[in-house]
Design brief:
The complex is a heterotrimer of chains A (about 240), B (about 325) and C (about 290).
Chain A lengths: L2 E12 L2 E12 L3 E5 L6 H8 L7 E6 L2 E2 L8 H4 L1 E3 L12 H11 L6 H15 L14 H13 L5 E5 L7 H16 L3 E5 L3 H7 L2 E6 L2 E6 L1 H6 L1 H8 L5
Parallel strand pairs in A: 3-8, 3-9, 6-7, 7-8
Antiparallel strand pairs in A: 1-2, 1-4, 4-5, 9-10
Helix pairs in contact in A: 3-4, 3-5, 4-5
Chain B lengths: L6 H19 L3 H27 L6 H19 L3 H20 L8 H19 L10 E2 L16 H23 L1 H11 L1 H6 L4 H27 L1 E2 L6 H14 L5 H21 L6 H16 L3 H7 L2 H18 L4
Chain C lengths: L2 H32 L6 H19 L3 H27 L6 H22 L14 E4 L2 E4 H23 L1 H11 L1 H6 L4 H24 L8 H16 L4 H22 L4 H24 L2
Antiparallel strand pairs in C: 1-2
Helix pairs in contact in C: 1-5, 1-8, 1-9, 1-10, 2-3, 2-4, 2-8, 2-9, 3-8, 5-6, 5-8, 6-8, 9-10, 10-11
Classes of the chains: A alpha/beta (about 240), B mainly alpha (about 325), C mainly alpha (about 290).
Amino acid sequence: MAELLEIKNLTKNFHGLKAVSDVSFTVEKGSITGMIGSNGAGKTTVFNMISGVLTPTSGSIIYQGKDITGTKACKYTGMGIARTFQIMKPLRNMTVLDNVVSGAIFGRKQLNAVQAREYAAEILEFTGLYDKKDLYPKDMGTPYKKRLEVARALATDPELLLLDEVMAGLNPTETDEAVELFQKINEQGTTILLIEHIMRAVASLCQKVVVMHHGEKITEGTPEQVMNDPYVIEIYLGKEED
Amino acid sequence: MRKKFGIRQILLLVLILICLIVPTFVKTPYMLGIFVTTFYIGCGTLAWSVLGSLTGEISLGHAGFMGLGAYIGALLMNNKHITPWVGMLVAFVVVGLLAACLLAPCFVLSGPYFTLVTIAFAEAFRNLFTNWDYAGKGQGILVPLKEQGMYSMRWISKVPYYYIALIMLIVFYVILRKIDRSKLGYALKTIREDEETANAVGINPFKYKFIATFISAGLIAVVGVFYANYIGYINPDIMKQSQALNYVMPAIIGGIGSITGPLLGAIILTPLSEFLSATLSHIAGGLNLVVYAVIVIAVILFRPTGIMGWFDHSKFKKKMNDRFDAIDAKLFGKRG
Amino acid sequence: MNTEILIQAIINGIMVGGIYAMIGMSLNMIFGVMKIVNFCQGELLMVSMYITYLFYSELGMEPFVAIPLVAVIMFGVGALIQSTMITRSIKEDGDQNVLFLTCCLGIFLSNTALLLFKSDYRTAESVFSNKVVSLGSMNISVPKLLGFVALCVTTVLIFLMLYYTKIGKQIRATSQNAIGAQVTGIRTKVVYACTYGLGAAIAGIAGACLMSYYYVYPAVGNIYGTRSFIVVTMGGLGSVVGAFFGGIGLGIMETVGSVIVGAAFKDTLVFIVFILILVIKENLNIRRRKG
């Protein structure tokens, strides 16, 4: 498999404080890659750099063989990179359908408003939100709002989908449904990079897992390898005292 | 979206027809004047809505842009004998571009800070025009009634103004409806709700805010040209912040966030304010505006989403929709 | 340019700036704690000027003597406005409603004044009006000087109140984090009402001082309202000390500006500087946030 995204020596300083330090990893085309780590490990900062919200202090982001470091945030959907936000940002005064339309209209497909509405309806069907299309986000529960975030990102027709903790706060059944959805998305050829805390979901979804701690990448590998890594266990569960 | 001809369209046509024949029934200049004022305030509110409702950037400096338009129209006519019709076009482009360029560096400002900047620009313009010889300084300028007719857009009768204002209102409304449902509209609304999300789906907020400011300021400058010719006299006071509120308050009452809301607000509020000023202001000066302000404050406190905001979430809307659909079905049979 | 004229302009600027500083401070008080920009601050000043005028015309009271009374009354007015109206319209999503509400309150207040007092210009003669102290070749008007003294006293009093009284500490806590303050048992509603009341009271002091050498009419709030925004932008939104220097800065900018560009265009100069400061500050902020 070819590399879709390559992160090289990514570093981000906030006023001298190192939030992310020298992180490198790759995302294979067509794969699902997970990023795990405790709170404040710098996962979201990495995401923000990959999606152009933040500019790295040093290091580079290579996407489809092209250096895209420092590109303006609004250019990413055109290149086929879409993201969701950890803190949900539904467009409050727009219906569920319109939320997704705004994704469709400015995404890679360059649709006009009418086509975008049709495409958005398709996406809603796919993500199981179609019967809620005329509701406003505030009228839906958290699982659906999270789904809406994914639907809006998906509507931009991404090659690479960045999901920032979209399963946090879901109960086990809902998590399973979400896992199923992401597998379906992945089967259609979309590469996924996700941040997640729910290990069960990570284990069943990801081919590769990157573990971060204190802004550094400490290891990567298959979910089994990572979960049996003594250092990872130490970070997650604390050191066994002897 | 299916487009079909139904009872809603028929009702709209009837409404427009009624508007068209009003001058044959309403003869007094005073009553006609209320209609004209309602129409051009409606236009101003719609123009403001491009920024205020769609983009969520509250401007209180639109009176300044309207004033600029009024001065452009009047000065072109008075000094160069160029028809206000061309003046409207010039005002649209010049004021639109000027406003967009001046406000462009301010797009980074959020919420009340942007509002403050718009006030500051309008006040700066007012200060400049108050001291500018060419524009008649603080006394302002007259648009003399030398010749009546289309070319000078000057008439003694109010009927022509009635039709111009009505057509302007319809055109503005159609433009806004088009924007609302277009790519531009989606961009603006997404920016309004959340700028970060806008970026994330591929919208360049700066670009679209620039376009919105251009359209909004340009359109209100056109209203300004009309105003100058209709009133026949302008001075820097038309750029005051309190004048800007004339275009903002209808939007608040009608409901910010939609296109129909601000228009509806203007249609309700302007005649009301004219009525109040006719009945109350000679009892005691200022009483009409006190009552007016109390009404608007009450709406803000008790119905913060305005008439349309309430209507959109009410059962009444659903009922009316169902009723209309039923009539449609009866009139035209079942259609796909 | 003549240095003497310049120095005189600066002195005048500092004196005028005293009033600006005070009204800026009152705006900042409200912004700092409630995070709302109060668009009717100028009108509150206007109301307090009329109250001072009433004390003068009905009871023959000296404007400077009326200061405490006006401040107390304005505190009540402010607390009432806050607890009955502004509280209702503060929403999590966006501050548009508060903006509109305070704007409309401004219209309401200025037109009520028009209703009650007509549009005439009214003055209140103080024993100090028209008195001037001379320092060498420099002249300072006594009422303006007293106004400046009142500003200094007010600033010190507010400072002491914020740092050494219970309610002051509660106000500071609430301004840091309203929810956090609530959790520790502070009744934020009371704090908000007090804060808005204090803001109005400071505007009241400013109004009483202003009345001794300026005239009042229903639309007077407009001038000072816009000025107050400029002051807080220059000095930093939310900072009481900032407003002090912002006000004096604006005063100097106006008087020196009118020496340089002419009195007619000083407003334009002020507004342009204001916009520049806002935009530059925000850009610096964004850069800092991005690290």
